Amino acid sequence: RSAETDAATASIPPAIVTNLHPLIREDSLNHTEIPAVNEKRRKILMGGEDHKTDRPRTSARMTGPPTSPRYDTAIAAIDRLNAADPRMEPDGSGTRRARELVYSDRMIECLPRLYPAASECLRLAARAQHICRWQIARGDFPLGREGYNAWRAACRDHHSALARRIMQDSGYPETDIAHVVKLIRKEELKRDAESQALENVVGVVFVTHYLEDFVTGHGDYDEAKLLGILRKTMRKLDGVGHAAIRDIPLPPAHKALVEKSLPRTA
Fold first, then answer.
1. Disulfide engineering: 170 pairs with which of 51, 74, 143, 236, CB 3.0-4.6 Å?
2. Is the dihedral of CA 15, 16, 22, 24 positive or negative?
């Protein structure tokens, strides 16, 4: 465990700190969503049903439905851990901050623009999407597609295990915990409304904030290879994500690349 992680967890409630050290790894998380609960979440997400929580109050971190005190506890724990990221990057305001804290801020800023009625579970999943990602180093896995996929799977295990522990110690019921774990693990895309919503936000954040660096950092890729990668990303999104990406202001060359990667509209 690192000194940075110790500092980051200094003011997290003791129960959460105890369970996070050593960092939890769960290699086999298999949760089945209850159909009635999934349908209710779909209605809430699309604005068709009121979102209710215990002792609601509005979060200062994003607009949308009111949130519960346990949400604030969980978000604080996620942010404290992400603040320990030793990698720093500009946050767009002239300040350099921990990379995963910047990423989680961008996720939680984008989410209400696409989904104003996003549930508490979806907000938590967006915030914890990359929690402590730097602790699973890409260099520890082989080069190539198989190594990359193994690294991504290990990241999903790591993020979901940390989110599970934080939510448990923040007082969430198992139904909510299992749902957030499913969202972070990217399960049931195209079938679960909130899994799809999270993937749309991931895609929009990537194109908005990271595409330019990705293209620049892969100067050896020709257009065909870049398009192949982008099209794989776009296939994971639905019409909401595609529409949002079309509206993103980009340099002309990148805009043209993105337009070619998107499915044709009718």
1. 74
2. positive
Instruction: Give the C-alpha distances (Å, rounded to integers) separating 36 from 41, 65, 120, 134, 175.
Output: 9, 21, 17, 37, 12
Q: SS3 letters for the chain?
A: CCHHHHHHCCCCCHHHHHHHCCCCCCCCCCCCCCHHHHHHHHHHHCCCCCCCCCCCECCCCCCCCCECHHHHHHHHHHHHHHCCCCCEEECCCCCEEEHHHHHHHHHHHHHHHHCCCCCHHHHHHHHCCCCCHHHCCHHHCCCCHHHHHHHHHHHHHHHHHHHHHHHHHHCCCHHHHHHHHHHHCCCCCCCCHHHHHHHHHHHHHHHHHHHHHHHHHCCCCCHHHHHHHHHHHHHCCCHHHHHHHHCCCCCHHHHHHHHHHCCCCC
**Poorest-pLDDT segment among 47-51, 62-66, 156-160, 180-184:** 47-51
Beta bridge partners of 97: 89
pTM over 0.70: yes
Q: What is d(CA 114, CA 117) in angstroms, rounded to the nearest whole number?
A: 9
Nearest-angstrom CA–CA distance, 237 and 233: 7
Mean pLDDT, rounded, of the chain: 83
Beta-bridge partner residues of 96: 90
Contact 254, 215 (CB under 8 A): yes
pLDDT surpassing 50 at residue 147: yes
Q: Which pLDDT score, from 0 to 100, does residue 17 have?
A: 47
Query: Is there a contact between 126 and 198 (Cβ–Cβ < 8 Å)?
Result: yes
